[in-house]
Each structure stands twice: as structure tokens, then as C-alpha cells.
Write a structure and sequence with these properties.
single chain, alpha/beta, Arginase, Chain A, 10 helices, 8 strands, 35% helix
Length: 306
């Protein structure tokens, strides 16, 4: 299956949580050579620059952090995602995970327009299945999956005319899930694979089963890769570090399996906070993982700065 032109889209979004730094993520990916890595693999790549949020007027809230700004990003990103997916394979360089409120919303609209089902592979330590009413922190980067699946409580956000069915979602690498999220998810058909499951059974069988379903349905596959999916010993540049994450070998295997499936149609790269990195180490790891998802197989490369 041929891969369409790749479009890199910077999302310097830093309002989904209170700890700042993710707005530097897009430039970190550029500096780490993401475009060059993909071009070297034979892909046509265009950097479309950075998205900006729609206009907004901030207001004070008792609990929720930067609600109006997050909504403004959501509307802008939904529009951008729908337009770009019709023309290319978009890679959204974040930015915190609240960007998925907009990217998945827009990609679902694109999927409906081309009459193909959208599947979402969520690579994250967290489910991000909260609603504005259930998030204890008030940080809206913990709500994207709640929003795009059509949960109640998102009255300030754009309507969700094309919610992603739960049985088209797989969450891998979970190891930090709040009790309300756990209870809500267990009542759904989401395929959730936590790190204990991966430790006991490996990743190949559940991921193969999910990718097989995507192909059988002629689906569009959106992968949302959070830095905290990885163990912080190999990817420290994230404000939500959770020990016990995926190893480098596991992560590359997942990316290679995604590549082999030929199903990938869009990608989020989120929660990279260069302010917390060690000489660009995490950005370079993420670039290498993206390269594996797009065909790189040989690992004899020059020693990195770290």
C-alpha cells in the first residue's frame, strides 16, 4: 500500500495542563530531524508550519484550566485535521494531549465524508477518558477520549456528530488510570491493554488482532503517541512521568507492526516537553519511532548526543 504525501503540522498547544513547556515540542521535532528522517525513507514530506487557535476570550473557572483556549484549539485543529487528511497523511507535532480533542474530532469528520470507519490506537500511560465534570485536576489533556467518543459534559466544546465507537479504539501501555475512568471504561468495548497484560502476554497478539480488524473494515487508522507511553528512563521529557512504561524495543516493535499493516493514515506526537529533556534525547527517540512507523528497519546509526 503506497503512503500518500506526509504533512507535518506543528501544534504549539500548552493549555491542556498547568505545567508549561509543550509549546516548544514542534520545533524540537524539527530540530531532531523528523522531516529529514522521513524524506530519507523515500517519502514526500511538507512542513505546513504551525496551527494557531481560533480567537477566544479567557475566563476564570473554579476547576477547569484554560477552558476557552482549549476550545479554541479544538475548533482550529478539527478544521485543520479534516482538511489535511483529505490531501495527505498528517503528523501533528504537539503540544500536549489536549490537541487530540481537535485532531480526532476532525479526522472522524473526514472518515465520515469518505465513508470509511475511523479506528484509534491510543499509546499512553493514561486513558484520557475523563470529562470536564470528572477530572479532578481540571487539566483538559485528560479528556480527549471522553470527548471524541461522545461522553456527556462537553457542552462548551463543538458538538460531536461522528463519535468514535468504543469498539474501534485500542489503548496500549496503560498504567495510571483514575477510578472514575476505570469504571467508565470497563462498561465499554474499548480494547485496553495495560502494562501488566503486556508483561504477561506480550504486545504482538492484541495489537495484531486490532490491526487485523482495521484492515478487514478498510478503516482509517489514527495513532496518538504520548511520550509517557515510554518508560521515563528512555524518554524523560514529559511532565506526566509514570515508571514502568514501554521499552525501546517494545515501542519499535509496535511502530514496525503499524508500518507492516499499511493502515496508518494519521499520527499525533504529544506531550514532549523539551524543557525537561536531556540534550534532545526524547525528541530523537520519538523521531526514531516515527521512522520505524514509516519503514525504517536498520538500526546501525551514528551515536546520538546522549
Amino acid at each position: 500500500m503506497s503512503i500518500p504525501p506526509i504533512r507535518l503540522i506543528g501544534v504549539p498547544m500548552d493549555c491542556g495542563k498547568r505545567r508549561q513547556g509543550c509549546l516548544m515540542g514542534p520545533d524540537a521535532y524539527r530540530t531532531a530531524g523528523l522531516a529529514a528522517a522521513l524524506t530519507d525513507l523515500g517519502h514526500a514530506v511538507r512542513d505546513a508550519g504551525n496551527v494557531a487557535p481560533d480567537d477566544f476570550t479567557p475566563r476564570d473557572h473554579d476547576r477547569l484550566h484554560a477552558l476557552e483556549e482549549t476550545v479554541a484549539w479544538t475548533t482550529a485543529l478539527s478544521r485543520t485535521a479534516q482538511q489535511s487528511a483529505a490531501e495527505a497523511l498528517p503528523i501533528f507535532m504537539g503540544g500536549d494531549h489536549a490537541l487530540a480533542l481537535g485532531t480526532v474530532h476532525g479526522l472522524a469528520a473526514h472518515a465520515a465524508a469518505v465513508n470509511r470507519p475511523l479506528f484509534v490506537l491510543w499509546l499512553d500511560a493514561h486513558t484520557d477518558y475523563h470529562t470536564p465534570a470528572t477530572t479532578a485536576s481540571g487539566n483538559l489533556h485528560g479528556t480527549p477520549m471522553g470527548y471524541v467518543t461522545g461522553r456527556d459534559g462537553f457542552d462548551d466544546f463543538p458538538p460531536v456528530p461522528h463519535p468514535v465507537p468504543h469498539d474501534r479504539i485500542a489503548m496500549l501501555g496503560l498504567r495510571s488510570v483514575d477510578a472514575p475512568e476505570r469504571a467508565a471504561l470497563q462498561a465499554t468495548d474499548v480494547a485496553y491493554i495495560d502494562m501488566r497484560h503486556i508483561d504477561e502476554h506480550g504486545i504482538v497478539r492484541p495489537l495484531t488482532a486490532f490491526l487485523d480488524r482495521v484492515r478487514a473494515a478498510d478503516g482509517l487508522l489514527h495513532v496518538s503517541l504520548d511520550v509517557d507511553f515510554l518508560d521515563p528512563t528512555i524518554a524523560p521529557a514529559v511532565g506526566t512521568t509514570v515508571p514502568g512504561g514501554a521499552t525501546l524495543r517494545e515501542a519499535h516493535l509496535i511502530m514496525e507492526m503499524i508500518c507492516d499493516s499499511g493502515a496508518l493514515t494519521s499520527l499525533d506526537l504529544v506531550e514532549l516537553n523539551p524543557f525537561l529533556d536531556e540534550r534532545g534525547r526524547t525528541a530523537q527517540v520519538m523521531v526514531d519511532l516515527v521512522a520505524s512507523a514509516f519503514g525504517r528497519r536498520v538500526f546501525d546509526r551514528p551515536t546520538r548526543a546522549y
